[in-house]
Amino acid sequence: MSTPSSDPVPAPGDVAEVTRDIADVPAVQVITTAAVHLMSAAAVKCGLAEEGDELRDLDEARKLITALAGLVTASAPDIGNQHARSLRDGLRSLQLAFREASPFPDAPGEGPGEKYTGPVS
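The chain above was modelled as a monomer; its predicted structure follows.
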């Protein structure tokens, strides 16, 4: 017999509750939460976690940073400058960390997410 916390499929009543909860969350919060998850994962894949090189995977980091750049660029007009500025700063830091971690840095404008943000230096 499984407990509710170990059961990967929520009960029908739980789904309705989760749906109602999501309906109450402002879009800006959903967007910034998704961006923070992408930033965290990209930082780990760039080797910025305590474990450093053990978890470094620059191919995965590139994908995560590009997805983050697309999300930040597309949502910036809707989430406002206050939120967008901090997301852009985090994105830029990750792009620079990626460049530093790469044994063969990309040409300016060719790094992860730079097709959305422009060259980062």
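Residues 58-79 form the longest helix (22 residues).
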